Every structure is written in structure tokens, then in C-alpha cells.
């Protein structure tokens, strides 16, 4: 794989900084990865975000992780998820301008999963959603497509599993639970990588 490349692109509140991960061959899909809550220190350098980006790249996708407005060198101010959704749509547009209309994966961790789920409502349709410990209860999570991959820790101390199941139950949405895992999946990143890899290997992208 090529070395990840720092980039900037236009967002609705100014320039946004990101890192683009490219496979050795021409990408077969685009994956956008969103980070956790900025007001709690979340950035695109979060280990779950970087794990997702590397995993998608190994699958042959162009993966873009980026900092929401007001984080590090990204311009603007925190907007409680509304502006951040627009930032994610800007990231999608940037990637599509560069790579065309390849199959699209929107993904995120915690607050980033909430933003990804909201952004998906404005893209018709995203090819796939990958939500890691979505911030159910802290933000108003929308309904998602039935093929959405949701991964949650059994012992999540930030977003209790019961809250995630309460959100998923009316949708009859499967939730993949990692036993004994907490919100930050300490020591379990390899399992997230395995699950995501298995989800997309051989899927025809």
C-alpha cells in the first residue's frame, strides 16, 4: 500500500484536513471514516478510526479519514453533529470528485457513527454503513438500512449496550456484540478488523 497522504479539501465552514489511504491497485470502492466526539478529544487519529481506514485500504478501497470542523487544522467550530454531517458529505464529494462514483462505505466510531448514519440519509443510497459503538442515547440516531454493520461492546461504559439494542430492536437490526469489550475496544481492534474484512471480502466490490 502507498503511504497515507495528508490532504485538505473544502468544507462548508472552511478547509478540512484529512488523510487519504490508497491501495496498490486502482480502488474498487470508497470508504469515509468519521471520528468520535470532538469535545471529548476525538480526532481522526483515534485508533478505531485508523484501524478502519487501514482495514478498508487492505480490502482495496480508497479510505479517507478526516477531522471535523474545529478539530486540529480543520476550520470552523463544533456544531453538535449538524455541521459535522455536512463535513462528512463534503468528504464524500471530495472522494467522488477524485475517484468517481465507486461503491461507497460510510463508517464511524461513536459520535462519528451518529454522523455517518445521518449523512447516509442524504446519499441515495450509500452502498454500506459500518457503525462502531454508535452514540445512541447521546444523540438522536436515525434509522438505518437493514444491511448496516453495527459492532458494540458488551461492557460499553459510555454507550450502554442496552441503549444500542433499544435503538436496533424496532428496526430488527442485528447488532454484533463483542463480549467483555468496552467502548474503546482495548485489546480488541484485531477483532474489529476481522469482522469488517469478513463483511466485505468476496462481496463483489
- According to CATH, the homologous superfamily is Alpha/Beta hydrolase fold, catalytic domain
Global morphology: globular
Strand content: 15-25%
| Count of beta strands | 8
Oligomer: single chain
Contiguous runs where pLDDT drops below 50 for at least 5 residues: none
How many domains would you count in the coordinates? 1
* CATH architecture title: 3-Layer(aba) Sandwich
pLDDT average, as an integer? 96
Largest sheet composition = 8 strands, mixed
Gyration radius, in Å: 15 Å
Describe the strand arrangement of the main beta sheet, using strand numbers.
1-2-4-3-5-6-7-8
Classification by helices and strands: alpha/beta
Approximately how much helix is present in the residues? 25-40%
How far apart lie the N and C ends?
18 Å
Q: How is this structure best described in words?
A:
This protein has helices spanning 47-58, 82-99, 111-120, 161-168, 189-200; strands at residues 5-11, 14-21, 29-34, 61-66, 104-109, 128-132, 149-153, 176-178. The longest helix is centred in the middle third of the chain and has 18 residues, at 82-99. The protein has an eight-stranded mixed β-sheet, with helices on both faces. Strand 1 (5-11) and strand 2 form a beta hairpin. The chain has one domain: Rossmann fold, CATH 3.40.50. With 205 residues, it is an alpha/beta fold.
What is the topological layout?
Layout: E1 5-11, E2 14-21, E3 29-34, H1 47-58, E4 61-66, H2 82-99, E5 104-109, H3 111-120, E6 128-132, E7 149-153, H4 161-168, E8 176-178, H5 189-200
Parallel strand pairs: 3-4, 3-5, 5-6, 6-7, 7-8
Antiparallel strand pairs: 1-2, 2-4
